[in-house]
Amino acid sequence: MTLSASFKAAEQRRPSRFGRMLEDRLPYLIVAPAILILLLVGLFPLIYSLIVSFQRITMTENDTSFVGLLNYAELFRDTRLWASLGHTTIITAIALPLELLVGFLMAQLFIDRMPGRQIFVALLVLPTVISPIVAGATWRLMFDVRFGPIGQILSFFAGEPVRILWTVNPSYVYPAIIICEVWQWSPFMFLLLLAALSNVDQSQLEAAEIDGASYLRVLRAIVLPAIAPVIAVACLIRGLDLVRIFDIIWALTEGGPGSMTETISLYTYVQGFSQFETSYTAAISFLVIALLTLITTLVLKRMELAR
Amino acid sequence: MADVKLSGVHKYYGNVHAVRGIDLTIADGEFAVLVGPSGCGKSTLLRTIAGLEDPDGGAITIGGAVVNDLRPRERNIAMVFQNYALYPYLTVSENIAFGLRARKTPEIEIRKRVSEAAEMLGIGNFLQRYPRQLSGGQRQRVAIGRAIVRKADLFLFDEPLSNLDAQLRDEMRTEIKRLHHEITTTMIYVTHDQVEAMTLADRIVLLRDGKIEQQGAPLELFEQPRTGFVAGFLGSPSINLIPATLKTNGPEAAVVFQSGGELTLPSAKARPLASMDGRDILVGIRPQHFSRAGGPLRDGVVSYSATADLIQPTGTRTFTTIRIGGVDAVAELQAHDVSSHGERIDLAIDLNRVVLIDPASGLVIA
Amino acid sequence: MRIGRLPARKARILAVRYLGAGIVTLLFLFPVYWLFMISFKTPDEIYHVPPLWIPGQIQFSNYYVLFRDGDVLAILNSVIVAGVSSGVAIVLGTLCAYSLARFGTGGENLAMWIISQRMIPPIAVVFPIFLIYVYFGLVDGYFGLILLYTAFNLPYVIWMMRGYIVDVPLELEESALVDGLNRWEVIWKVVFPMVRPGLMATSVFTFVFAWNDFLFALVLTRTEVITFPVMLTHYFGGQSNFWAKIAAMSVLGTLPIFVAVSVMQRYLVRGVSLGAVKG
After folding, report:
1. What mean pLDDT is predicted for residues B176-180?
2. B106 to chain A: which residues are within 8 Å by CB?
3. Which residues in chain C touch residue B83, judged by CB atoms under 8 angstroms apart?
4. For the segment A228-270, what is each residue's pLDDT rounded down to a tens digit?
């Protein structure tokens, strides 16, 4: 006890005034660095860009006089811009449902336990985690008209040589992009839907089985409502990614042939880094942000309503 | 060692006035239990004493010093939490030593205290295990051990037994009581379980809606509740409350049930009721104050004949539901006093210990 | 139930499911196989018509070329940029997340603003960032890319770690506060160990995001600090692709991801769904 008492002093820890201040301010001190970086690299460029979008800066002229909404008005006359938005819409509208469907079918295949399931899942997820540029490069190898296996396989089934220039032929560029996209991202849907399906209340399914409900009925009445929130989140994440698709197309077609597969991201890039239409690029950026914000808000609103 | 003094303590959560002006003195070495229904502010009060919440008014004094502005770690207190709050990534011995290491206690001293505590709690064999490898009771012992080694001035317990099953809870309750005998540190213990409160406390502080309803020794609260709430909260099964009307005649008084029937009160109970003729009251009779009638009746004990409805034997005692004054009441009888549903039984009711409550104010009037 | 004892009907169903699983896996992994295989082929085998499905022998000359020509520096650059940026993002982001989760700093508005930063399309900011970087001389250097990826990953880290931290029982921290730690020590000695699995999973994802990024790297690198996806696109040519280099570089740039992700498999679902789905 005397020994214990002698350590009493050591156990009383009274921090200095400065230490106390650091502790009192802790909630703000630890938020500050992250917020600072976000302001610096996230918000500052946006504000800068907003200002520039009201000016007339081009490659040749550094004209910082304000011209109001001139650049934004220009957007409406720019047919290539609207074409690129059209391309983006086509890719999103086809690839997103396909990814969802393929992912759902895959999840159905793996929903019941079976030995080695974890290994299958681990392997199937690989396409999703590799770099989109690598994915694009891989499919370039796959699609190659002479040295790729796709033509070879098609020839085998057709019984005659099939020579398709997938990344050049206007009839095949979209299928090529969508195949690559679906290949890379269906596993993403699969992963989320598998988790969602595993979380469906088992007792509800068993009750339905006892009641003798058919598979389709169980799917419609129990499974789909239960996984709807996950489907919504998955579609939102993928949808936003698809609208700003860039890497895969860069690797496969670079927007070609001509500007046939030029999406909004590629077009913005071209305007900014080939044409150096600084102010106009800024205006396009805000069009993109506005569109994405609109989509996100609409989806979130609907999710809110469904809840 | 320290006494604790609260004066005018208030605490708000947003618009909710959780603690409403608590004045309380807990003597050095006392075991005080804060008890009350959920939402009564007992946990909030404890956390305020610990310094985990800042009071919105009033002063908290520990060992003679106002601690309002001190951090939890500067108050030299130890606390045991409901969910044990053991660090899953540390072994049992590291868990117990955690607070000492935090205070830079020399390793020799740490080792000595940890083994002392482990011995006291019978967890010496588990010191190298991780919390997830222990049972609920063992985890609770580790949590207590972590508090003991601190040799703090004040022990705080926040519903420490509520996650244990019934049998372990009894066991640990005894353990905690013994602990208090051995180390005689001031302890403040929060629970919603009146059995824990009754068995552990030197003093029960019964809280309701952020205020102290009544405080005192366990039996004092049980036998002389100041309000109907206190009478109803303590005791298991709960006290039976039967609506009735007072009928007085000079120094005599009787309660008349609304369904007819009348019980004459003993003179000690009747005395303060002289001027209350015709008042509506609630008659509180504890299940324990019923018994099987047999032999001559003592003074103040009246006989009552009833039909046994539900019969719940517990082994030693049998709880029997009867009708009295138009309501269902529970009588606690000897195991073999009653055997079948519908049986006619003659009961004796000890009216010396009955509680009469004014339904309007909730106060006990006799 | 043991497989050997299955009734015939169940065994048949299981067999069909394995068949289905095998076919699906084959379909999805074939392109990956093709990529790996080409990286081991000799030029003659690569440019053989019809294509060969199995290389004659496993040989590493394609990789040797990458090392000889110094192309692997791109991998090294990627490691440095992705590694440092995700380390910084993890530390700063977790601290910020702790404040949001425990003290509600900035309220729900700050949290929403942070996650909305994640939603901003890179293409919309890459051009102004490029102009600003040119002004400050940050193009084609480590610092610029690291700063950018840190900022890019911060919302993700904050969002994910906030979820993990909320799951830490408050009592653990309170117990530590009573026992003698101050807030800083609580973060270091209680919160960090408690969320360690989440920290590791989240750092893998931030690393992968930075590692896989192409757009920022394309714009902000020139000759000094080229990351591997940009290097890869340098091998593309209209008619003449450097198949051997493309394949070998792709494999080098993919292996670390494979390893990291298979180790972190348990956390994949939560990680890729921004915490919306807990796996």
Report:
1. 92
2. 7, 10
3. 169, 171
4. 888 988 998 899 899 989 999 999 988 878 889 999 999 999 9
Task: Name all contacts of A115-118 with Cβ < 8 Å and 24+ positions apart.
Answer: A115/C3, A118/C265
Rounded to the nearest 5 percent, the helix, strand and coil shares of chain B are 30, 35, 35
Among B74, B76, B106, the residue with its CB nearest the CB of A7 is B106
Q: How confident is the model at residue A14 (pLDDT cuts 50, 70, 90)?
A: low
- For B329, the 3-state DSSP assignment is strand
For residue A85, give the H/E element and its range.
Answer: helix A79-110
Give yes or no for residue B353 having a pLDDT over 50.
yes
For A202-232, the DSSP string reads HHHHHHHHHTT--HHHHIIIIIHHHHHHHHH
Measured in angstroms, the CA of A202 and the nearest CA of chain B are apart by 28
Cα A190 to Cα A46, A237, B365, C119: the distances in Å are 35, 14, 71, 22
Q: Hey, what are B349's tokens?
A: 């009711």
The tens digit of pLDDT for each residue in A175-227 reads: 999 999 999 999 999 999 998 998 888 888 888 888 888 888 888 888 998 89
DSSP code, position C51: P
Closest residue of chain C to B83, computed from CA coordinates: C171
Q: Does B105 touch chain A (CB under 8 A)?
A: yes
Q: Tell me the two tokens of residue A23.
A: 């502790």
As to burial, measured by CB atoms within 10 angstroms (0-12 exposed, 13-18 middle, 19+ buried), residue B212 is: buried
Give yes or no for a cis peptide into A257 (omega within 30° of 0): yes
What residue spans in chain B does CATH classification 3.40.50.300 cover?
A: 4-224
Q: C182 in the Ramachandran plot: left (φ > 0), alpha (ψ -120 to 50) or beta? A: beta
**pLDDT for residue A102:** 96
User: What secondary structure letter does DSSP report for C190?
Assistant: I
DSSP class of residue B363 equals: B
Contact A55, A64 (CB under 8 A): yes
Contact A267, A284 (CB under 8 A): yes
Does B36 score more than 90 pLDDT?
yes
From the CA of B312, how many Å to the nearest CA of chain A?
34
In terms of pTM, does the model score above 0.90? no
CATH 2.40.50.140 fits B240-357, yes or no: yes
- Burial pattern C217-239, b for ≥16 Cβ within 10 A else e, equals bbbbbeeebbbbbbbbbebbeee
Higher pLDDT, A136 or A2: A136
Are the beta carbons of A11 and B105 separated by less than 8 Å?
yes
What band does C240 get if pLDDT is binned at 50, 70 and 90? Answer: low
Backbone angles phi, psi at B204, to 5 degrees: -95, 135
Q: What is the ipTM of this complex?
A: 0.89
Q: Give the pLDDT band of residue B221 (cuts 50, 70, 90).
A: very high
Under DSSP, the state recorded for B309 is -
Fold designation for B4-224 = Rossmann fold (3.40.50)
Q: Which two tokens stand for residue B114?
A: 């940890």
Task: Let me know: does B213 contact B36? Beta carbons within 8 Å.
Answer: yes
pLDDT at C2: 47
CATH 2.40.50.140 boundaries in chain B? 240-357
Stated length of chain C? 279
Mean pLDDT, range C35-52, rounded to an integer: 85
Residue B305: helix, strand or coil by DSSP?
strand
Does the pLDDT value for residue B357 go beyond 90? yes
Distance of CA A235 to the CA centre of its chain: 9
- Band (pLDDT 50/70/90 cuts) for residue C279 is low
How far is the C-alpha of B200 from the C-alpha of B197, rounded, in Å?
Answer: 6
> For tokens 């919306």, what's the residue?
C276
The bridge status of strand B16-26 relative to strand B186-191 is unpaired
